[in-house]
Every structure is written in structure tokens, then in C-alpha cells.
Amino acid sequence: MIVDDRLDVTAAEVHGRRERVRAAMTSERIATLAVYNNGQHDMTRMDPLFYLTDFYCIGPCWLLVPAAGRPVLYVTPGWDAPRARATVPGVDVIAGDPDAILRLVGDALAGTVGTAALSGGDALSVHAARYLGDITALRTAGDLIARIAAVKSPAELARTERAAEIADLGFARLRECARTGMREFELAAEVEAAMKAAGADDNFGLIAAGPDLSAIRSATDRRLEPGDSIVGEITPAYRGYHAQLCRTFVLGEPRPKVRSNFDLLIDAERQAFAQALPGRSTAEIAAAANDAISAGGYGEFCRPPYMRTRGHGLGVGGVIPDLDPDDGIALEAGMTFVIHPNQYFPDSGYLMLGDTVVIERGGPRPLTKTPATLFWRPL
């Protein structure tokens, strides 16, 4: 278990993040940075507002960061103001109903075209854009915040490690309670409950079962049957930081093709890990996974519509793009993301294997600790 004090992101740390962003604003000649979150938290999408506040908003919120002076956090719903003030020292908090906040933000940004930039504008609704007038003409901040957020601090890494521990607990619960006749959504509920009991804020969970799955999907009311492969993409969040575990569990003894194809996934993950080094590209990770699966005779299935990516960033750590063999970014020590050579096989169905890692000088360190093996239980 991780020591609790490592999990605390301090006010000084969050202030330091804002100061680094201000330094970047100065170099890019940005007088005001407007940061938006629509109240939704996507496990694959960078959340710049959370990064700069450590505040998990539940409604549309804005953070205006001036080049000098106190930032202002605009919060909806209005009754959430006390939590915001207690959570985010060093900023002014203004709260109200959504339309009132939009008017205030619009007024604050009026006349700033050319000197202000916007982060998170891709999540703006048409309704919000109408209130904000010239906001559509603001510069985009691009990856300004993402560049700073790419390398995790000790406290951020500790939260990700705790999320990884919770993901391991979730899969352990899946293995423990999966049984013939159980509905998929009942199994998903057991996994969810176990992780919430362990402290998860949220979970992006996909669990599917069948003898010949074509892809991962949300749980349905289908009943588990003997011989089913149960695939799980388990992604809990802990204090805003996600970790993902992908594994396969078979009800009964696995068929030979399921075993041999899962061995290919093990080799693909091993080869992908070998490329996950500082200075290497995320594209090299994806290419290594594809090469391993292609060597097993399944190269034509290493592209859409059979597979989309060999991994991706996670939540606040979502600065890593999808792991694509044709495009990538350079890795740095301290980056976290998931590597998952999940794959559809025409002779065994869709199988899953993937782990959240942190990049270190000696290679990637898996934060999820569930063994990289095919799990099964005799009937």
C-alpha cells in the first residue's frame, strides 16, 4: 500500500504548475490563458483545468490565468463554490449558474483577441460559444499545458500507482466471481463495487464475454457460458489520475488457439516494452507490437477495423497520443500511459493484454502488477 502523504498534491506544487505555464505564456506572448472544462472527464483526454487547480469540476468551469496577478476560477453549479475555495488556494473563485458564468467570462475576455489564448475550446458547446462572442477568434493554446504536464511529479505518480493497485483489485474480483449463468452487467457491477470500495473516484470499464468476440464493448445482459473468453478493460481513477489494466479470463480450459494467440500478445507486449525508453518514439512501441503479431501470421489484422491503437495516455496523463506506428512523440522519463497490444484474431476472437507503465531510464516500469498471463478456471 502506498504511503498516504505521497498522494497529496500540495498547494505549492499546483502553484508551481501555474508558474511554469505563465513562463510558457510569456515566451509565446500570451497575456491571458483561458482554460475550459465542460464538467466531463475523459480517460483519454488531457484535463488542463484539473492540472492547474487539482479541482475535479462537476459542471462547466473556467480558469483565467493572467500573465501577472491572481487567477480566477469560474465555477458551476454555484453551490459548489465552498468546495472550490477549500480545494484551490491562491485563486479567486466566482460561482453562479452556467449562463451567468458565461456572461462573466465573456466580459473578462472582451477585447483580448490577439493577446489571449484558449485551452479546452474543443469541448465548448454552440450555446457557450454564442455567449462568448469573439472567443472563437482567440488563439488556441495548443499543447502548451500538455508539454508541462507530460512528466509526472512524485505525488502525481503516487496517485497513478494507487489507481493501478485498484485496477489489479478489480480484475482479481472478476476472476473471483465470474461464473456460468452470470450476466455480463452483473460481473461488471462486482468489479465496479470492489474498486469503489478501494477508493476509486470513477471507472471507465468495458467487460465483454463470448467464445469468439470481435471487439471489446460495454457489458450486456448476455449470460456467461462455458468456454467464454472474458475480456476486461479496467480503468479506475484515483483523485483524478487513471490507470488501465487489460486482461483475458477464460471460463473453463482455454482452446489451443486461445493459448497460442495469447502467447503472441505476451511477446508483443514484451517487444513493445523494449522500445519504451527515454528518447525513443511512441511510434516505435506500436511498430514493435505490430511486428510481433505479424510474425505470428496476423499482420493483416494489425490495422483498422481490427485494431485501433497499441496504447494511449490516461486522463490528466493523456498527453501521450494514441500509439500509432506512423506517428509519435519522443518519450521522457516520468511519462505514464498504457501499452496494450489487444488484438482480434479470426481463429480465437478478441483477446486483451495491457498495462499502465511509467517511463524510466532503465525501461518501462509496469504500475499494474497482475501477471501478464492468460487466466482461466476449470469448470
Distance between the termini: 33 Å
Beta-strand residue percentage: 15-25%
Number of helices: 10
Count of discrete domains = 2
Second-tier CATH architecture of the largest domain: Alpha-Beta Complex
Radius of gyration: 22 Å
What is the helix fraction of residues, given as a range?
Answer: 25-40%
CATH superfamily label of the largest domain: Creatinase/methionine aminopeptidase superfamily
Write a structural description.
- The protein is an alpha+beta fold and 379 residues long.
- It has helices spanning 11-27, 48-53, 81-87, 98-109, 126-132, 144-149, 154-177, 184-197, 256-275, 282-298; strands at residues 32-37, 61-66, 72-75, 92-95, 116-119, 139-140, 202-210, 229-238, 241-242, 245-251, 311-312, 336-339, 343-345, 349-351, 355-360, 363-366, 375-377.
- It has two domains: 4-149, Creatinase/prolidase N-terminal domain (Creatine Amidinohydrolase, Chain A, domain 1, 3-Layer(aba) Sandwich); 154-377, Creatine Amidinohydrolase (Alpha-Beta Complex).
- The protein is built from ten helices and 17 strands.
- The protein has a six-stranded mixed beta sheet with strand order 4-3-2-1-5-6, sandwiched between helices.
- Helix 9 packs antiparallel against helix 10 (282-298).
